[in-house]
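Dear Dr. L.,

I hope this message finds you well. Following up on our conversation about the binding site, I have prepared a predicted three-dimensional model of the protein together with nicotinamide-adenine-dinucleotide. For your records, I am including the exact sequence and ligand specification that went into the calculation, followed by the structure tokens. Please feel free to forward this to your student if that is useful.
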Amino acid sequence: MGDRALAGRTAVVTGSTSGIGLGIATGLARAGANVMLNGFGDAAEIGRIKRELAALGARVAHHGADMTRPAEVAAMIEAAEAEFGAVDILVNNAGIQHVAPVRDFPAEQWERILSINLSSAFYASKAALPGMVARNWGRIVNIASAHGLVASPNKSAYVAAKHGLVGLTKVVALETAKTGVTCNAICPGWVLTPLVDKQIRARAAAEGKTYEAARLELVGEKHPSKEFVTPEQLAELALFLCSAGAAQMRGQALAMDGGWTAQ
Ligand code: NAD
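The resulting structure of the complex is given below.
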């Protein structure tokens, strides 16, 4: 994608105060898009992120919508439309994890993961689609996971939500197939963000290993490459999906996972 190819476009990226969402928001800002950030964090940290993105030449705002609350999700889309005039790109990225076998899995964690990792993408898409279809241009990029394609034990809610998100991606793509709006999913393998850092620490504590040993073991058992994927690499794929070259890519689940799901 050429420099500032997204100038004049507006992107909403959910869960963009950290990790993959922040990496994608930064890539979109660098490509010239206005960005509505979303996610939790202290005000000083969010202010710092806003200044960093604005320094790339983007117009930046933050909306604190809680992705468990449908009315707040819709209000976030309305706020972006009011602030920037449109929502052209929607990246449904916010997500959380909880690890436990089904029989011990807390019901409230099941509900929370389904609402943040799956339902919020439905509510945000529902709110953004009318404007995208009316303008005949839009890009919805759902951040699913390798766990949207394959399963692992102890991640029932996460795997169910991510498989569901891949399904939602296909339906939205089919419903918009005759328009300039596309919807695709990205399925990352392991990315070393706070979400995964927590799992490495839990593994190190449970198995009496160092953080470094647990980190290598975690990535090594899933990725033939033995390397983590980075937020910057995922941002490049999201930018491709926003480009003219991806106009006929519709309803796909694109893995970037160090070879995990090729096995
Ligand atoms: P992260 O913990 O670094 O960031 C999560 C973001 O979501 C933060 O900005 C947080 O504030 C926000 N968030 C959490 N709950 C929210 C809520 N209720 N409302 C609004 N925002 C909320 O996580 P990450 O690793 O960057 O994950 C981002 C996405 O990528 C998730 O959907 C995750 O499932 C997916 N993913 C991550 C990996 C990985 O290895 N890290 C792999 C595959 C997929």
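In brief: The chain has eight helices and seven strands.

With kind regards,
A. P.
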